[in-house]
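Researcher: Please predict.
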Amino acid sequence: MVVPMRLAVFALVLANLLLFVWARGYLGAPAEPDSRRAEQQLLPERVVVVSRGEPPPSARHKEDGETAGERKPNESCQIWSDLAASEADQVEQLLQEGFAAFRASRRTVNENSGYWVYVPPLANKEEVSKKTAELQQLGVDDFFVVQASGPNQLAISLGTYRTEEAANAGLEALRAKGVKSARMSERRGKPTYVILEIRGPAAQAEALQQSIAAKLPKATGRACKANAVTAP
């Protein structure tokens, strides 16, 4: 019984050894074809370096083409601002008559600094003193007298507001206190003006600028800022 047992153990060890050798591929065929394919994927002699530190030529040409499509190197852009409506009309007529290759975008600006409640301008400083004393008797202490020269000189400001609704509420509160001479109106930063953005051939830009300056000596033009958005 001992000898057959030893033969069985020896046969089992030999079978395991043969299986191990066959699995390693020493007998000519690997047990796992996938592992062989993985080894064949790494072929250094077939690796080609197409660029170092920059995109390959094909990608670089594509990027350059896209950028060139966005840029307009032969186009000029001028901004003419603080124009009266009639002055802007003259410039647009000039473009139609002598610079048809240019196009103008026009934007009207109406600066509103808000609203204020006030006592209209008084005749002299004596009237101002009399009115301010009257306001204090009515319990109004938050005011100031406009001293700057202009249409509102010697007016008495009773408050400034962002919206018309708030200004009306302030006016009603003052009238409830007995301030009957108070008024409310809009405060403008500067008169309405027009901005023209003019685009066209760079070769004619200087001639256009000189023509506008000759027609409107007080007007000033400047180059558009980079990536400026065309005015509506």
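Model: Confidence is low (pLDDT under 50) at residues 61-71, 227-232.
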